[in-house]
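Hi team,

As requested, here is the filled-out complex form for the zinc ion run. I kept the field names the same as last time so the parser does not choke. Let me know if anything looks off before we queue the next batch.

— J.
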Amino acid sequence: MTETAFFLSPAALTSLVFGLALLANVGVKLWLATRQIRAVARNRAAVPAEFSQTIALDSHQRAADYTVTKLRFGLLELALSAAVLLGWTLLGGLDALNAALLSVFGPGYPLLQPLALLAAFALINGLIDLPLALYQTFVIEERFGFNKMTLKLWLADLVKSTVVGCVIGLPLAALALWLMQATGSLWWLWTWGAWMAFSLLMMVIYPTVIAPLFNKFQPLQDESLQERVTQLMARCGFAAKGLFVMDGSRRSAHANAYFTGFGAAKRVVFFDTLLAQLTPPEVEAVLAHELGHFKHKHILKRIVGLFAFSLAGLALLGWLSNQPWFYAGLGVTPNLPPQMGGVVPNHALALLLFALVVPVFTFFLSPLMAQLSRKHEFEADAYAASQANAQDLSNALVKLYKDNASTLTPDPLYVRFYYSHPPASERIARMGGKIVPA
Ligand SMILES: [Zn+2]
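And here is what came back:
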């Protein structure tokens, strides 16, 4: 017996590392959710002192119940997604799907079989998610009065998004698979270039072509608000193509405002629900906050970060896709290489395995990402306070927290891991605003 017999094979080691990472991932998520549920439940009986003059006990308790209900549902989703992930990988789901499609297509379809594999995978995952999405909208959101969708609208959305997904996704996937086969060992660089070009294109066509398929966008009518907003933008040296109101109330009572597009194609979009809840000075302050994200180049930094992260990811995938243990360790038999008579390459398999497995590991980076995002929120708040009124933004925040039934008593560790926005009280304190009695 040689010494190497005492070591795990690379494939077995891959299975072990993946299994342990998944266990740690689920364990940490479960622990954090449990902490958050406890923190919210513990503080349900009384409104936190600083908000006691502003928020009524019944809306505080509604927020607590909504938060706990969503967290409990999240635990169900967590268990299901871990089971699905194991099903695809170590339990052989992806392997079986690949084998079935190989036998359906027969030999000689080096592009079509992998494309069918990606499409079938997306379809099956979509079907698994469907009951959860239905429950979330028509049971949870409905119970707390947020859902404004009819089943008919929900189905129409589903059909539309599936069609849009096919029209955009299939050619993009075909292009990526083709590049992977045709461009040799640097395929990951070519694929990255194509993907980034596509992402930039989407930033231009999403607001003008795709979003209008789902919502109506009308120019902002309210003249005094228009005046206010135009003055604010002039003050901040900011040009946008237009101010729009979106009929967010068709689907949900949750409120929002955002910018889309870049360069000269930028547009400001207000949800009608936001305009209904806030006074004009508050809307102005919220917009000033959004402008702060632009002034501090947060959006550009995010895009650059995403590009760099994608490049590193694809380079890693380029290497992994040539390692037999990567497939075998994750429950997949790789297709035969050409020198052994194989015709169907392994790129689609590698891509799917990578997409399945990477989030298990990158989850542990979420405190860093959340920290960065919260830092950006403070910077945008400071900008808003300098260009508009800090008290108006504070009032708007309290209203939005109340109307969105967000909890005012989160667990600090849960905040560190997940919160992209700092808790309302911290933001208001940092701006020097006050929590004014209702
Ligand atoms: Zn923000």
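Two things worth flagging: The pocket of zinc ion is lined by residues 289, 293, 377, 380 (CB under 6 Å). The mean pLDDT is 92.

Thanks,
J.
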